[in-house]
Specification:
Radius of gyration of chain A: 17 Å
Distance between the termini of chain B: 32 Å
Radius of gyration of chain B: 31 Å
Largest sheet of chain A: 6 strands, mixed
Shape of chain A: globular
CATH architecture of chain A: 3-Layer(aba) Sandwich
Oligomer: heterodimer
Shape of chain B: elongated
Largest interface: A-B, 32 and 26 residues
CATH superfamily of chain A: P-loop containing nucleotide triphosphate hydrolases
Number of domains of chain A: 1
Distance between the termini of chain A: 23 Å
CATH topology of chain A: Rossmann fold
Strand content of chain B: 15-25%
Number of helices of chain B: 12
Number of strands of chain B: 12
């Protein structure tokens, strides 16, 4: 699903109220174009996770505006009736650990989101196998998650995030458990997939190895982001 | 959509099967408990059915002969025979005791000794309605017909009180209301056995009677002997079993006997209600309590297991919710697992109960109706037990899948 990526304007999030209120996000502005992979970098407690949860529609921001593709999804309140469907169909997630469903094989792990969206099982599995092939793990299609290496698991998790062709993917430290070589491989895959599927990908990371690979980086500190150009090494 | 519950069960089948087996043993005990109750009721009905009686005539204002003691003169049956609607009437005595096996290995068996009219024509109430080996009692003394559950065999010598009897016939499913197998002996022998005193007691009784001037008057020879003879004989029976003529109304005949003979008479339905409602009522309540406790324990175990299994999947549930799984899909997954656990448990329990029931000393009657009720009860219990886990799963925040 091609689109205009994601645009965030003045996003705020306040926890609590009164004297004990904490402003975790103090007006975040960012945008990610389709086919682009940007880094989101910041120290612990800077608001990275709050921003990711807000973008992922699992917590309610306090104020601001979010536009996904052509549609305003948040403007001082959610503008979509079903956040569950929003997460299922239009936002992909890749986590620090792959968090594959241990009782489903690789194909069904990837096919699960379209199945949940009502796509027939055979069609969902076909989509899954296509993605597994694109990510070069098709040979493990029948394996259980416990039988995969860490890198294979992460590729399967990326496939699951991409399978519904969402306009945006939120990747939460996807390379944290991986060595340099595998981490770079994952970033390469994310770049390839972003280009192939016109997906906007936001990668939250602490990983010094992969930061130079981003062309644009958002630094977040004390709930405020500022943008800077990255080195964009290796993935032109 | 694939079955998440089914996949999870297949993935962790060992855990499910072993848990199901454990639960199944508990369910098996529950089914056996229900079977024990059914067996008690069936024993009671078998007692009534096999007696061949339509009416039970007992001592006035008693619930005899099974629920209370009852004593009637043994010649009353002749008067009953003359009543309108009565086809046959026979005396019967019941005496529960340890019957010893005479010479072979001196083992003893808890049995109900039944005194019946020896040599009575076939179909006389009280006598065994059918035999699986041997013949009916034909001699007036020292012959017995035993239920096969006693373990006695044809030709065995058994000892009741101080007399020895030869087993001449074997019958089946002739039991008392408490499940003890029956041993039939001639009525006179049973009457004697019922009140037989030991030799010292007889000797002391005779001496005491002899020293009583009222019984041992000079010039009245024979009085003492007559008194002693009456003291050492028993002319009482516990009940008179009545078979009605075809077409006779049991209630009308019972009313007639009660009115004219001043005796208490029970019909088959009344006797069944006495047996079930009074004789085994306490046992039934006891078993009912056990069933309730077992149901609660089963529910607690299922709830704990399903809760633990769900706790183990908190992260997966958070991920499922984050990628858009409906709450009802997650709830269905947990409930299906609980129901599957119940189904496995029930299958194991049913098999266990079926194979172990014959090993129990008392009759355990497993009826399909109980199994069907039990199956649905297990499913309901499992469904209810899964509610706690479902509530916990639905409270899982999808944000938990995202770090921070």
């Amino acid at each position: 699903m091609a689109g205009k990526g994601i645009r965030i304007e003045g996003l705020r999030k306040r926890y609590g109220s009164g004297d004990t209120a904490v402003d975790a996000l103090k007006g975040v502005d960012m945008h990610v174009e389709p086919g682009e992979v940007v880094g989101l970098v910041g120290p612990s407690g800077s608001g990275k996770s709050t921003l990711l949860k807000s973008l992922g529609a699992v917590i309610d921001p306090t104020a601001g505006r979010m536009t996904l593709g052509d549609e305003v999804i948040y403007d001082e309140g959610w503008k979509v009736p079903d956040l569950r469907a929003l997460r299922r169909d239009r936002i992909g997630f890749v986590f620090q650990a792959p968090y594959l469903i241990p009782f489903l094989d690789v194909t069904d792990n990837v096919a699960l989101p379209p199945m949940l969206a009502g796509v027939p099982n055979t069609e969902a599995r076909k989509r899954a196998l296509d993605l597994l092939m694109a990510l070069d793990v098709q040979h493990r299609a029948q394996a259980m998650p416990s039988q995969l290496s860490g890198g294979e698991q992460q590729r399967v998790a990326i496939a699951r995030g991409l399978v519904n062709h969402p306009p945006v993917i939120l990747a939460d430290e996807p390379t944290a458990p991986l060595d340099s070589q595998r981490a770079m491989a994952v970033i390469r895959i994310l770049n390839d997939m972003a280009k192939k599927y016109e997906t906007a990908i936001i990668v939250v990371t602490h990983d010094e190895k992969i930061i130079p690979t981003f062309k644009r980086i958002y630094h977040i500190r004390d709930g405020v982001t500022h943008e800077e150009a990255g080195e964009g090494r290796g993935f032109d | 959509m694939i079955s998440l519950a089914g996949r999870d069960i297949l993935h962790a089948w060992g855990k499910f099967v072993f848990t199901g087996v454990g639960l199944g043993l508990l369910i098996g005990v529950t089914l056996v408990m229900a079977g024990v109750y059914r067996g008690m009721v069936d024993d009671g009905k078998a007692l009534l059915d096999n007696s061949g009686a339509d009416l039970w005539v007992v001592q006035q204002d008693t619930l005899g002969p099974y629920a209370e003691s009852s004593s009637l003169n043994d010649d009353l049956y002749r008067a009953i025979l003359a009543m309108p609607g009565v086809d046959r009437a026979a005396n019967v005595t019941y005496l529960t005791m340890q019957v010893r096996q005479g010479e072979r290995d001196a083992r003893d068996v808890r049995a109900m000794v039944v005194g019946v009219a020896a040599g009575a024509p076939a179909g006389t109430p009280g006598t065994p309605p059918y035999l699986v080996a041997g013949r009916q009692i034909t001699r007036g003394h020292y012959e017995a017909v035993a239920d096969v559950a006693t373990g006695f065999r044809l030709g065995d010598t058994i000892k009741i009180r101080r007399n020895q009897y030869t087993v001449v016939g074997l019958t089946r499913r002739m039991v008392s209301s408490s499940g003890d197998p029956m041993v039939f002996v001639p009525l006179k022998d049973a009457q004697e056995a019922q009140f037989l005193k030991d030799n010292d007691a007889i000797w002391q009784s005779r001496r005491r009677t002899g020293e009583n001037p009222a019984f041992n008057r000079p010039g009245a020879p024979g009085v003492l002997d007559a008194v002693i003879a009456s003291q050492s004989s028993n002319n009482f029976v516990n009940a008179i079993l009545v078979r009605l003529e075809p077409g006779a109304d049991p209630d009308e005949t019972a009313r007639s006997i009660h009115r004219w003979k001043r005796l208490t008479v029970y019909t088959r339905a009344q006797m069944e209600s006495i047996l079930v409602g009074k004789l085994i009522a306490t046992s039934a309540k006891q078993i009912g309590m056990f069933l309730v406790i077992l149901a609660v324990v089963s529910a607690a175990i299922v709830a704990f297991i399903i809760y633990t299994l769900t706790m183990d999947k908190i992260r997966e549930i958070a991920v499922l919710k984050l990628i858009g799984t409906r709450n009802r899909t997650i709830a269905a997954m947990i409930m299906q697992q609980a129901l599957a656990l119940g189904a496995i448990g029930f299958a194991v329990g049913k098999i266990t109960a079926t194979f172990t029931a014959p090993l129990f000393p008392k009759y355990v009657l497993l009826v399909p109706q109980d199994s069907i009720i039990g199956f649905f009860a297990v499913l309901v219990i499992c469904a209810l037990a899964s509610v706690v886990a479902i509530r916990m799963a639905l409270r899982v925040d999808p944000a938990e899948a995202i770090g921070g």
